Amino acid sequence: MRHVWSWGAIILGSLYFLLPLIGTVEFSLRMRRGEYSLDAYRSVLADPNFHATFGFSVVMALLTILLGVLIVVPTAYWVRLRLPRLRPVIEFVTLLPLVIPAIVVVFGYIRLFNTSSWLPLTGTAHGTNLLLLCGYATLALPYMYRAVDTGLSTLDVRTLTEAAQSLGAGWTRIIGQLVLPNVLGAVMSGAFLSFAIVIGEFTMATLLNRPAFGPYMQLLGANRAYEPAALAVIAFAATWGCMGLMQLISRVFGAGRSAK
Amino acid sequence: MTFLVLDHLQKSFGSTRVVHDFDLHVEKGEFVSFLGPSGCGKTTVLRMVAGFETPSEGRILIDGQDVTRLRPNQRQIGMVFQAYALFPNLTVAENVGFGLKVAGVARADRADRVAEMLELIGLPDLGARFPWQLSGGQQQRVALARALAPRPRVLLLDEPLSALDAKIRVSLRNQIRAIQQQLGITTIFVTHDQEEALSISDRIVVMHRGVADQTGTPREIYNHPATDFVAGFVGTLNRFEAEVLDRGTGRVRVAGAEFSLNRPLDGDVITLAARPEGLALADEGIPAEVTGVEFLGSVQRVRATVAGREVVLDRFNAPSAALPEPGEIVHFSADRSTWLVLARGD
Prior knowledge:
The complex is a heterodimer. The longest helix of chain A has 35 residues, at 48-82. The two termini of chain A are 36 Å apart. Chain A has one domain (48-253): Orthogonal Bundle (MetI-like fold), CATH 1.10.3720.10. Chain A is built from 12 helices and no strands. In chain A, 33% of the residues are buried. Helices cover 79% and strands 0% of the residues of chain A. In chain B, 24% of the residues lie in helices and 36% in strands. Chain B has helices at 42-50, 92-102, 107-120, 136-148, 166-183, 194-200, 218-223, 228-233; strands at 2-13, 16-27, 31-35, 57-62, 65-66, 77-80, 154-158, 186-191, 203-208, 211-216, 238-246, 251-254, 257-260, 269-274, 279-282, 286-295, 299-306, 309-316, 329-334, 340-342. In chain B, β9 and β10 form a beta hairpin. Classes of the chains: A mainly alpha, B alpha+beta. The A-B interface holds A 155-156, 159-160, 162-170, 173, 178, 181-182, 256-257, 259-260 and B 50-52, 71-79, 81, 83, 85-89, 98-99, 102-103, 130-132, 143, 146-147, 150, 156.
């Protein structure tokens, strides 16, 4: 009896996730009347805007991950080592991006860094990209911080630090060679989420007027019939492909190095 | 020559003072143990030497250099922790070589030194393993090798044996002592286990409530405890209320039995103490009622009560000697010199 229920739950869950996906795939193949074809995919892949925006978003996603790691790993480490009482506060701060809508953040950015402000970041494309990067890193913060903090909880941070210090190591070496490699798995899981968020992000990229993949998807969706479905499938596959690649890289780098 | 000087160290956390006026001079190559119950401040003193805590007052000198304000990574100190603290992402060889790498030793020299250290701890073939593939005893030996590899000036051992099981504890402590003597490295060893401290130290500092109660060789500490606390903490001690009959000759009466200690005494009622192995069964002496007998192989342990207090007597096993029965009245005696007169007070 129990088996029936658990199989039922699995089937129901699978249908819930797979049906829309199957539907999208099916629809994306019906561009040519009366038969299945890959015309919609050809059309999307031939569009230079697709390449430009997707490339832009992938680069932004990787930079976001890098920035996130640089901010989160030392912070989470330091909080665990020296400011354990501040942990709830820091945790609350990192959760704020879930509560504050992206649109509020981006309007704040525009108000603070517009061309007539003390730091006119929105005046140049690079400046705006930097602003967008910071926005993305903020959006990814809750996931990154949680993942890294959980990873750190499996280590005896204080004793490992003291052992390294007694052997002459300074902070850069401790964080770079001991803390980061030991939380790499956690960092990667945070990175997956960051990547997925950035690839599809719409609000910030639109309001900062950057040629990202999210606004491109929206534009295409508003103007075409079959291509958006094909684009969704491609984006889905590409995102999973990139995640798989990151997983592979972390496996290769961490070969035999992961405890447990 | 004095190599490590702890000059009137004090440490307070907030308003609680955990170390009071701690003063110690350690010779080069000496093995000194800090012994005391948990919370006595022994680990805090060790951490001040390592640089993880800053003394509220006082100075620390290593080889004439004042290191009191130096950061831990500038002190050239080797430390071994209770929790091993091996780096989980590095192999055994990389762990041992870590300090050398930090010091900028060339790769080839590093490999030689790592091999030498692994040889020293008796694990020459385990260099490629990861810490989680080793037993606790092996991990702690690797931690020792790692601490020793960069040739530290002082070796600090923070309860390194406490996480291990009894058998490994004994063999590893002997190995630690052998390596320490072979290298002639100045060592401080923190422990709450008196047997550990007695067996491997040149000198022991018995600590109690942030104060060094007594500093001396293991024999001095055991045979001539300076305070009541030291007497009670190190080894088992039997206490007897004694009525002083003659202060000059040291004639006393214990539970009705009279004998002389042959030394001048103060006070009318004093506390006498004797180690279990200092007491003997005799035809006459302090009367005691046997409550139990334990046969421990090489040793027989007789438990009895004298004037309501529990007293323990240890004697070597002898196949011909009969064991007393519970309920039997026996008589305890002890050599005059083995009696300790405990200071009154705490």
